[in-house]
Model the fold of this input.
Amino acid sequence: MKKIILSMTAVLMACAIEVHAKNNVEAPCLKFDPSAGEERVLTMPTGEQVRYTAYERLYFVTNVEDSAFQFMNVYVPQGSTQRSPILLRTYVGGYMASAAGQPQAGDASGRALQEGMVVAIPGSRGRNSTIIATKTDKKAGVKKGQKVYTGRAPSAILDLKAAIRYLRHFDNIMLGDAEKIITDGTSAGGAMSSLMGATGNHPDYEPLLRAMGAASERDDVLASVCYCPITDLDHADMAYEWLYNGTTNRQQGNEQVLAISNELKEQFPAYLESLNLRTPSGTQLTADNYLSYIKSELIRSAQLAKNAGADIPDSIGFTFSDEASFGAPPINGGMRQSPAGRVPIGGERLTPTMLHPGGKKRAGDYIVDLDMDKYLNYVVSTQPLKTAPAFDTKGVAAQTPSGENEEFGDRNGSSVNFTEFGSLKASTYLSDEVKHNVRLMNPMYYIDDKATSVAPHWYIRHGARDRDTAFPVPINLALKLQNAGKDVNFLLAWNRPHSGDYALDELFKWIKEIIKD
Done:
């Protein structure tokens, strides 16, 4: 057998209690009691009731700094075994603190329970989490009674890694298979999911995790689900302006903002070249052909949606074939719906009678081109662009700090610039500590690092009209992983704004495929 359920005595031994010889006081330890669960029921949107056992307030570090966030809740559905996969769902948003939550019927956590997966929902500190210091720490510059910001970078990813290590530490006595952990997050949570997947077991994090009292275990995962990840922050500003610089919003906007946009736009090609990315077909990507590649991804997304029945207007830049007899196959195979009824697909030529009951061809079934200028202006019309820079705003053209500026600030509550460009424009100093923290928060630095155990499976989604970060950010992530030999399921999801945990049927079909024994 893969695992053996231990007795209660063994559970206490797993806690690894140590006794200080000097004062005979028990040191803190990690604990899990399999008999301490509470039986509950979750009612799904379909009316189905999912019965499960809840284990809550499982502290995943021994040196707990912020007791409001540094614990995890684990939910085990009825019928789970030691081989059941585990969905680790983080609810981080805006790089803010995220409390350990409960499964929700309307998102992936509830669906995972319904599918028989164990669900782990860890809390994590964030840029807004604070405590009141109980003692003076001269080294950290903190005085007793002072408000301390506990969650500045890289605290959140450290907490999430500690949660993964906790699941491995108790893998033998907890239902669910810690070798089948699948992370899931949206926005900044999508960035955290990408970090959990890309930085497994890397030594950069080890001393920080050890200081927190995390379990001495591995923290790599099987797969990462990343919805609209707000990541690669030190290059996100240049990617944003490279994509959106030519839109009406930028060209007819504030002159100072446009000047900044122009400068940032010019920096992106060199960064893109440094990534040495190739498309799935093997084409080297450069600034000269990158926009065409983005266009092909948008056309692919729109075509999939159109095949599934969506109405794709030509007013936003699409051009449709006037020869409808070569219709593209619909999503997921099966039968193709037409006015004449359902007809089989498989690449066969469709006759005019099959396409229209009157015997006429129906034009517009196949998308052949996209006017990117028109389409990008459409995206901007659905939600105005962020300012320039989009992320490192502090002191640049007299702008106020962004949430990302706060994320890289210190425990005293400061906000700092975190890019060379922002620091130069704001006349501030970019310290080595900030540079290191930026690295710890960017999965792009670790995917090719031989010291990292990168997740073998990835599911990455970014809305086709999501302007919270530019399309190159998730595309670069997906291509870098593909180029590294990882299994990547990527899509610019049609007509989706900044959002996550959608198309759950598709997501869980993918999960079932990757967890096959």
Remarks:
- The CA atoms of residues 113 and 128 lie 31 Å apart.
- The chain has 16 helices and 15 strands.
- Residues 1-14, 16-27, 324-362 have pLDDT under 50 and may be disordered.
- The first strand starts at residue 38 and ends at 43.
